[in-house]
Hints:
Blueprint: H1 10-27, H2 45-63, E1 67-75, E2 78-86, E3 89-98, H3 112-133, E4 141-149, E5 152-160
Parallel strand pairs: 3-4
Antiparallel strand pairs: 1-2, 2-3, 4-5
Amino acid sequence: MDNPLSDLPLFTMAHLARKQAAKSRHHKGITPNPALPSTWLAVSPSQRRGKYAEIKAVHWLQQQKLTILTTNLRCKFGEIDIVAKEHGILVFIEVRSRSYRHFGDAAASINDAKQKRIIRTAQYHLLSLARQFFNHKIPPCRFDVVTLQQDRLKWYRAAFSMRQ
């Protein structure tokens, strides 16, 4: 499942996202406000770093023989960065990146509240994922974390569980 945009520089991806957002607003009858600065849809450096980490993690996980089912799975409870399948196991993956270790490493940033949001989001989507990818059967699930720090990926399998 190659994404043709994944090889584009991140500033180009942000530019394409701004163009698409402007186009969708125009088609819905919403005209862009010319008084707003052109950078109002700009992506912050931390968002760019996060998107870069997600793209890099997807490519790396595919090399590790995981089948990527979807990315950026959202609902009212939160978001899961990557959903994958490995040997019949449904794997929910959170990707974290940190440019500095001043506040701890990237894995330490996944606190109890963040874990609960990820678990609730997974529970919300579980039936539809089972129907779509596991022939209507609820598969075993796992929660992994992939971190990117100093351009090095680290994979924490079964980083947390629903039973805490």
